[in-house]
Write a structure and sequence with these properties.
The longest helix has 17 residues, at 45-61. The chain is an alpha+beta fold. The chain has a four-stranded mixed β-sheet. It starts with 25 loop residues before the first helix and ends with a helix. It has helices spanning 26-41, 45-61, 63-70, 76-90, 94-105, 112-122, 142-151, 190-204, and strands at residues 130-136, 163-169, 176-181, 184-189. The chain contains eight helices and four strands. Helix 1 (26-41) packs across helix 6 and helix 4 (76-90) runs antiparallel to helix 5.
């Protein structure tokens, strides 16, 4: 994993076990709304919420599965198979299983933490909880995310606000992280520094 730009703390050696916490974006909310509609039609909102909560716990407790679902290079088929296996073993209701398959087949498996957070929010289960996202070139570990929260995000949000995080992967940023909290955006990526150097070199020609 690439280090932060000069002057910022490197996260590489802070840990290697992955963990997911969640946040909601517009796309996440759309999928969550679909799930809500299905659950209401089947009169299974409580069971659907329990299924999604159990899935979130499973992903949080399984670094390998979390990392694989976040990996953009992993195929949709592989992710669909993983989610199908989890749902079957956990005894998820059929509508939850079909929803997870649709999410995976649409290439949105890496969005599941956000979708689950959005679904909980729609049901009023996460009132008062803030949301944030950390974008990195490769999946971050639990300890790396904690370091980002402590050293950077804590400087953005008010003291005492509880945050739920998700790590989204974008290899294009090359290294470092980008942080989005509400309408606030902090770019600590290697790509940003690279573009600055490129601009300086072009200006010097």
């Amino acid at each position: 994993y690439s280090s932060f730009p000069k002057g910022h703390t490197s996260l590489y050696d802070l840990g290697r076990r992955a963990s997911l916490r969640s946040f909601a974006t517009g796309a996440d909310t759309r999928y969550a709304s679909i799930l809500q509609s299905v659950a209401e039609k089947d009169k299974s909102s409580d069971k659907t919420l329990q299924d999604m909560t159990d899935l979130s716990s499973t992903l949080s407790e399984s670094p390998h599965l979390s990392t694989l679902l976040l990996d953009p290079s992993a195929s949709r088929h592989v992710k669909a198979s993983i989610l199908s296996d989890i749902a079957a073993k956990a005894g998820f209701q059929p509508s939850s299983q079909r929803f997870l398959q649709a999410v995976a087949e649409n290439g949105r498996a890496n969005e599941l933490p956000g979708i689950i957070a959005a679904y909980r929010a729609l049901l009023g289960g996460d009132a008062g909880v803030g949301s944030a996202t950390v974008i990195s070139a490769v999946p971050l570990s639990k300890w790396q995310l904690a370091s980002v929260e402590k050293n950077y995000i804590s400087q953005i949000v008010k003291q005492g606000v509880e945050l739920e995080l998700v790590n989204k992967v974008d290899p294009a940023i090359m290294g470092g992280v980008q942080i989005q909290v509400g309408d606030k955006f902090v770019d600590l990526s290697v790509r940003k520094e690279f573009l600055k150097v490129k601009e300086l070199l072009q200006g010097a020609v």
